[in-house]
Request: fold
Amino acid sequence: VSAIAVLRRGLAGWLVLGACCVAPFVVVAGDDDPLVVTSGAAPGYVDDEVCGECHGRRAASYHAGVGMARSFGQPGPESYVEDFARATFVHQRSGQHFELARRDGRLLFRRWQVAPDGQPINLFEQAVDYWLGSGHHARVYLYRTAGGELYQLPVAWYEQERRFGMAPGFDRPDHDGMLRRVRRECLFCHNAYPDAPAGSDARDAPQTFPARLPEGIGCQRCHGPGARHVETVREESARAEAERRDEIDLARVRAAIVNPGRLAPQLRDDVCFGCHMQPAVALPGVRRFGRGDWSFRPGQPLPDYLAQVDVDVEGQPRGERFEINHHPYRLRQSRCYLEGGGRLSCLTCHDPHRKVPPQERAAHYRAACLTCHRADACTGAKHAPRPGVAAGDCVACHMPRRRTEDVVHVVMTDHLIQRRAPPEAERLAPREERDPVITGVELLEPQRLPSGPLGEIYRTLAALQGHASAPVVDRLGRLLNEAGVDEIEPWLALAEGQLKQRRFGPAERTLARVLARRPRLAQAEEWRALALAGQGRHDEAIAALRVLEERGEAGPEAAFNLGRILLGRQRAEEAVPALRRALERRENMVPAWFHLGNAYAELGRDDEAVQAYERALALEPTHSGAYLALGRALLKLGRRDEALRFWRHGARAAAKPEPIAAALAAETAPH
Ligand code: HEC
Ligand code: HEC
Ligand code: HEC
Ligand code: HEC
Ligand code: HEC
Ligand code: HEC
Ligand code: HEC
Reply:
C-alpha cells in the first residue's frame, strides 16, 4: 500500500495532496459538489471535466492537442477549423451545389441544383447540429431529426487539402445526399458514452440519441466509469482529515479506476482496439448477442463485446490494403510486432494524453525505436539517404504517410514498419473512390471467439451486413436451427434478411419465434406486420400496426408502413395522418413525402400534394416518380409553366429520366 502525504493548508474543506508521482492535484474533500453520476445503459460515469479537477495537467494537455478530445462537438466559433471562404462548391457528378454558411451563430447547410432556366431548384436547407472529427484529417457534419435520429450531411472538410469536398463515399452521381443514417456504432468510436436509458442501446432498440450528447472522447472511454474512483478519493480524504492522518489509502483509490497501463497486454490493447482495430470499414464487426452498444468497459476482453472480421478484397492481398483506421491492423503485420516478443504496443510510441508537437516528432519516435533497436541498427539511412530527411528521423523512412483507400482525400501514417516503403509518388498518388469487392469474410481473432456453429453465425451475420443475398440468408437460417441459438439478435437479423428477399412466409415464422421469446417486442411486431402485408393479409397488418401506435411504440417506419398499406387499400383519408406522424418524427423520410403527395392527390388536395412532392425532391432530386407526379399536380392546378420547369429539369436530373421526357414531349407537342 503506497501513500502520499496530505498537507493541511488551513483552507476550509480543501486538502492539497502533494503528489509524488502523477501530477500535482487538488482534492475537494467532503460533500462539496454532489457528483452527477450517469445511470441507465452506461452507469457510473461522471462528467469528464471532473477528472481535470485533480488530474489538471493531464487533462489540459489532452484537451489542448489530442484529436480524441475534440472528436465530436457542436458548431460554434471556438470549434471551427474550417476555412468557410471555401465552403461553396459544385459537385459535377451529381450536378448539385453545396454551401455551409455561418448564420446568427449557427451553421447552415444548403444543397440545390440549377434548372435549365439557370435558376436554383430543389433547394434543401438544414441547420448543422454536430460536427464529427477533430479536423486533424477530416470533419463531417450531422443533423438531428425531431425523433432524435442523427444523419450525416454529404460534405466534409479535408484539413490536409484545406478545402471542402464530398464526404467519404459520396463522390458519385447517385450518392445518399442527406439521407445517410448515423448509427450508435459510429458514435461508439467517435465520442464518450451518452447518458441513455437502460436497454436503449440494444440491437432491436431504435437508433435514436438522447437530446444531450457528450462532446469528445473523454477520459473514461479508456479508464472506465469514474464515479467510484472520485467518491473513493473524497471518502479517503474526508476520513484522513477526520482522523487527523497525513496519509490516504492510495491503493484503494487506484483500485477504483482502470489504468490500461497496468492491464495484461491483451486487455490493454483491447482498450484501444475497440475503436482503432477496424480491418474493413465496409464490413464492421458484429456486437456479441446480449451486449448493448454502450456496454464495453476497459479491462474487459473486446471479443466478449464485439466479433470482429477481416475481409478479402478482389485483386488485392491483405498485406496491401490501407484504410483510414488501419493503425493496429498494419502494425500487427510488422516484423517489429511479430518478432518483438509482445513488447510492441500503441503505448510504446503514443502517450494518449499528449500530442507530440512537430518539432519533437523525429526525436520522440526515434526514442521509441531505440527501446528495441541499437542506434546503428539501420543498414539503410546512409546508403539510401532521402533529401530533407535526417538519419535520426526513423519514421520518415520506415513509417511514411500514405493515401488511404476509403477516404481518398486523406493521408495517414502507415503503421506497417517496413524496410523499404514504396516511393512517395506511389504512396501519395491521387485516388478515385471505389467500392471494394469483398470476396471473403473471416473472424479476426477466432481463438478468442466461440468456435463451431456459433462462431460461424457471427461470421455469417457480418457478411449479411454487406449484402443480404439469398444463399447467405439461407445459411444463417440453417445455422440457427442447427445450433439451437436462443438469443433474439440473430433471429431478428434472419427475419430482416428474409424480408429483404421478400420471403414473407418464412419471415413471419421467424418473427413468431422471436415474439414467443420476447412478447411485444416492438421491432418484431412491426416486421411481422410487413410480413403479413407482403402475403396480402392487409387487414391483419393494419390492425397490428395500429396496436403498436396505440402503445406509443411505433417508430417512423411503422407509421409510414401503416400509411402505405392504407393508401394501397384506397383509404387515402386514413393514410394522410399516418404518413404525417411518420414525418413528424423523421422529417427527411422521402417515401413518406412522396406517398403523402399521392394521398393528397387522390383526395383532390392538389396544393398540398405539390408541397409534399416538392419536399421529396428537395431531399432526393433524382426521384423520378416525384417529378412526374408533381408535374401532373401542377398541371391540374393550372400552373403549367412550373410543371414544365420541373419536367425539363427532371428529364436531366432524375434517376429514370425517360418517362419524364416522354411526359414533357406529350405536354409540349403541338395539338
Ligand atoms: C478528487 C480527486 C480526483 C479526481 C476527481 C479524479 N482522480 Fe484519479 N486519482 C486521484 C488520486 C489521489 C490518484 C492516486 C494517485 C497516485 O496513484 O499517485 C488517482 C489515480 C488515478 C489513476 C491511476 C490509477 C492507477 O492504477 O495508477 C487514473 C487512471 C485516474 N486517477 C483517472 C481518473 C479519471 C479518469 C478521473 C475522472 C473520472 C479521475 N481520475 C478523477 C484523484 C482523483
Ligand atoms: C470502429 C471504430 C470507428 C467507426 C465505427 C467509425 N470510425 Fe471514423 N475513425 C475511427 C478512427 C480510429 C479514426 C482515425 C483516427 C484518426 O483520424 O487519427 C477515424 C477517422 C474518422 C474521421 C477523420 C477524423 C480526423 O480528423 O482525424 C472522420 C471524419 C470519421 N472517422 C467519420 C466517421 C463517421 C461519420 C462514422 C460513422 C458513420 C465513423 N467514422 C465510424 C474510428 C471509427
Ligand atoms: C485514449 C485513451 C486514454 C484517454 C482518452 C485518457 N487516458 Fe489516461 N491513460 C491511458 C493509458 C493507456 C494510460 C497508461 C499509460 C502508460 O502506462 O503508459 C493512462 C494513464 C493515466 C493515468 C495514470 C498515470 C500514471 O502513470 O500513473 C492517469 C492519472 C490518467 N491516465 C488520467 C487521465 C485523464 C484525467 C484523462 C482525461 C483528461 C485521461 N487519462 C484520458 C489512456 C487514456
Ligand atoms: C472511443 C474510441 C477510442 C478509443 C478507446 C481510443 N481511440 Fe484513439 N482515436 C479515436 C478516434 C475516433 C480518433 C480520431 C479523433 C479525431 O481526430 O477526430 C483517435 C485518434 C487517436 C490518435 C491520433 C490523435 C491526434 O491527435 O490526431 C492516437 C495517437 C490515438 N487515437 C491513440 C489511441 C490509443 C493509444 C488508444 C488506447 C490507449 C486509443 N487511441 C483509444 C478513437 C479511440
Ligand atoms: C513504432 C511507433 C508507433 C507505434 C507502436 C504506434 N504508432 Fe501510431 N503513430 C506513429 C507515428 C510516427 C505517427 C505519426 C505522428 C505524426 O505525424 O506526428 C503515428 C500516428 C498515429 C495516429 C494519427 C493518424 C496518423 O495516421 O498519422 C493514430 C490514430 C495512431 N498513430 C494510432 C496508433 C494506434 C492505435 C497504435 C497501436 C495499435 C499505434 N498508433 C502504434 C508511431 C507509432
Ligand atoms: C518492441 C521492439 C521493437 C520496436 C519498438 C521497434 N522494432 Fe523494429 N524490429 C523489431 C524486431 C524484433 C525486428 C525483427 C528482427 C530484427 O530485424 O531485428 C524488427 C525489424 C525491423 C525492421 C526490418 C523490417 C523488415 O521487414 O525486414 C525495420 C526496418 C525496423 N524494425 C525499424 C524499426 C523502426 C523504424 C522502429 C521505430 C519506429 C522500430 N523498428 C521499433 C523490434 C522492434
Ligand atoms: C533515409 C531513410 C532512413 C532513415 C532516416 C532510417 N532508415 Fe533504417 N533503413 C533504411 C533503408 C533503406 C533500409 C533497408 C536497407 C536494406 O534493405 O539494405 C533500412 C534498414 C533498417 C533496419 C533493418 C536492418 C536489417 O538489415 O535488418 C532497421 C532495424 C532500421 N533500418 C532501423 C532504423 C532506425 C531505428 C532508424 C532511426 C534511428 C532508421 N532506421 C532510420 C532507411 C532509413
